[in-house]
UniProtKB/TrEMBL annotation:
It comes from Roseovarius azorensis. NCBIfam families: rplA_bact (TIGR01169). Gene3D superfamilies: 3.30.190.20, 3.40.50.790. The gene is rplA. Keywords: Repressor, Ribonucleoprotein, Ribosomal protein, RNA-binding, rRNA-binding, Translation regulation, tRNA-binding. The lineage of its organism: Bacteria, Pseudomonadati, Pseudomonadota, Alphaproteobacteria, Rhodobacterales. This is Large ribosomal subunit protein uL1. Protein L1 is also a translational repressor protein, it controls the translation of the L11 operon by binding to its mRNA. Binds directly to 23S rRNA. The L1 stalk is quite mobile in the ribosome, and is involved in E site tRNA release.
Amino acid sequence: MAKLGKRTRTLREAFAGKDNLSVEDAIALIKGNATAKFDETVEISMNLGVDPRHADQMVRGVVGLPNGTGKTVRVAVFARGAKADEAQAAGADIVGAEDLMEIVQGGKIEFDRCIATPDMMPVVGRLGKVLGPRNLMPNPKVGTVTMDVAQAVKNAKGGEVQFKAEKAGVVHAGVGKASFDAAKLAENVRAFVSAVQKAKPAGAKGTYVKKISLSSTMGAGVSVDINSAVTE
């Protein structure tokens, strides 16, 4: 059995026996043990009682975190003419049409969010096998297929987070940085949980939210009391 490093042992000891904490206590524990040499991301993971293989149990949505994510989001926009100009003026990092499609097809993906005007979807549709697995495919349900590209770019750069249930019914996202004020992190966590609750699909049966965990990029995870995370 591999010998554990000092940092790993310290983390395990700090988190041992601590679970089902309030949001505030979990955040305090995570912040106090986020000792990496960079500003770690605070991540949330929610285990849901859904099977996303069934269309009526898919959980997908978007939420604007009240205090942002602390992350610099690179945004690509597929648009032409005036809409391309709007996107650039709004701060999009990459704007293009067929030329951008060719860049992406070549394997160069230097963006975290992809937005497109509706008329560009026949072009973007050819990139499904490339963008789909990376959860970058524009989708009208989360506001990334829109004529209001300027607002979409501003939302993406202003702390908007997309979420989508994976095969096991797990939804996860970054909800801020360890350097954030604890109260702001707690507000972001509850905003995210609220958005996932509101996205409950019609086909969900039984308990919808089974477990909520918080962790930092390099830290251990801790389970959170679901009632503490619920705002309504």
